[in-house]
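Posting here for the record, re: calcium ion.
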Amino acid sequence: MATRVILDVDTGSDDAVAVATALRCPDLDVLAICTVWGNLDVEDTTENTLRLVDKLGRAEVPVYKGCGTAMVKYLYPRGAVDTGRSSKVVDENGNELHIHYKRLSGLENPVEKKEEPIDAVTFYVQFLRAQTEKVTLIPVGPLTNLGEALSIAPDIADKIEKIVIMGGGDKVANISPSAEANIWHDPEAAEIVQQCGAPVLWIPLDATLSCALNRKDCAELRATGTWAADFAATLCEERIEFESKSVGGDKDNSSIHDALAVCSVIDESVLTEVEDAHVHIALNGYNEGETIIDRRCIPDKFNCRFAVKASHDKFLAMLCEYLGRSE
Ligand code: RIB
Ligand code: CA
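Prediction output follows.
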């Protein structure tokens, strides 16, 4: 029996690999895809998602456009936080490089498919309330849509099998010295989701960085011979190009963060180390967006599970298996 899932994406490059993997996996029943701001504005994340779903021949999967900004983060002044480099990243010819292009490579052409007439938040409330079977949610962008839906209708938590969140980090951060991008973008939404009562499995940077893909892996993926595999390999190579130039040194790999969240739902054995944990989200101040693991906590205080390591070889094998399928 296929696992019933809803994806929540800010399509971007790694989101696109996650969506393609989910739509190609026969063990997942993708009921809907919700889009949100984050890597790009919500207009662009939605357009990229529509084009991808159509290109994969899965235009029947509904896409619901969601929130364009955080719940409350930008309603009051923020502390000055270092969110990394300010200079542009350019290649040897001076061309500006990005990790998430406004139009992803392979999705240059517009498609007929449009988003559904209701927004993502309304969809979550109406759809989940109507369910008799629980649904697994896989949010891989800022958690604004789910934060809003759970604020309006906390009862929908009872209809959720589990929430598998790509986000956060224990010993690793990326957008600030202590936070990962998805959670930093909307800390309040993340705290609402973490505390909603549904089971939560975190897929943080600690896990996604442990299974980064290099150019050889991209070649192996491309060799499976399908459009989806070539599409994913290209996005991964573009990420490697950007990261090798932006962090310098001999970095020759990139983490396809969101695809690990999807693979974790397909076969959780891709995660080789998962801890029971007690997590809250820092909401304001220099460490806003940090996923704070309370290591003092005693077992009856655990409120989630937190992946700390994944298998590179199994992750790559899963991507080749599913993206290598023609349909
Ligand atoms: O920090 C990584 C996360 O932020 C990924 O979901 C990526 O797509 C960006 O949204
Ligand atoms: Ca994402």
